[in-house]
Design a protein that fits this description.
- This protein has helices at residues 12-25, 29-44, 64-83, 88-105, 107-111, 113-127, 146-153, 165-169, and strands at residues 49-52, 55-58.
- With 177 residues, the chain is mainly α.
- The radius of gyration is 28 Å and the shape is flat.
- The model has no long low-confidence stretch (mean pLDDT 78).
C-alpha cells in the first residue's frame, strides 16, 4: 500500500464531514436552519412556563393554537428547504409571510427571536441559487484566448454621425405626439 492512496485509511468522521459538506452545498442549508430556528420559539413560548424563584409565569394565551400552527409550519418549511430545494422560492416566501403573521398572533413573533430568524431564513431561501458545475462555469482569464482578452480591455469606439436625424427634425418629440 502506498502512502498516496486515499480512501481506505480515511477516518469515518472525515468521510461523514465531507459528505455533509457536499450535501449542504447542494441546497439552501442556512436558510432551512434559520427557518427551523425561527419556528421553534414561535411554537414554544405560548406553552412555556417561566420560573422566577417561587413564582411561575405561564405564557399561555388565547393565540396558542395559532402560534403552534405557525411554528410547526415554519419548521416544516425549513425541512422542505433542505430536502426539496427545488421549491425553495415558494418555501422562502411562505416563511416570510408566516414570520410577518407571527407578530400579531404569536407573542410578538416569539418575542422577536423567532420572527427575525424566520425572516432571515425566508430571505436566504428566496435568494439562494444552485451553483453551476465546473464544466459549465465561465472560463477564467488564464483559459481565455489572448485576442479575446485584448478586445475586452479595449476602449469602446464612439459613434460618429450615425444618429437619428428624424428625432432632431421634430424637436426630439415622439412622432405620434
Amino acid at each position: 500500500m502506498s502512502p498516496e492512496s486515499t480512501g481506505q485509511n480515511e477516518h469515518y468522521i472525515s468521510v461523514a464531514r465531507r459528505r455533509f459538506r457536499t450535501w449542504r452545498g447542494d441546497r439552501p442549508f442556512w436558510a432551512g436552519l434559520f427557518t427551523i430556528l425561527g419556528g421553534a420559539p414561535i411554537a414554544y413560548f405560548p406553552y412555556a412556563d417561566l420560573h422566577l424563584g417561587n413564582m411561575t409565569l405561564t405564557m399561555s394565551t388565547t393565540a396558542g393554537a395559532g402560534s403552534l400552527i405557525i411554528g410547526v409550519l415554519l419548521i416544516t418549511l425549513g425541512l422542505t428547504m433542505w430536502f426539496h430545494h427545488i421549491v425553495r422560492v415558494f418555501a422562502g416566501i411562505a416563511a416570510i409571510l408566516l414570520a410577518l403573521i407571527s407578530i400579531p398572533v404569536a407573542n410578538i413573533g416569539g418575542f422577536l427571536i423567532g420572527f427575525l430568524f424566520a425572516l432571515v431564513g425566508g430571505a436566504l431561501s428566496v435568494s439562494w441559487a444552485p451553483g453551476r458545475p465546473e464544466s459549465e462555469q465561465a472560463p477564467s482569464d488564464e483559459e481565455r484566448p489572448e485576442a479575446e482578452l485584448q478586445g475586452a480591455a479595449a476602449v469602446p469606439q464612439q459613434q460618429g454621425a450615425e444618429f437619428d436625424t428624424a428625432a432632431d427634425a421634430d424637436g426630439g418629440r415622439h412622432r405620434a405626439g
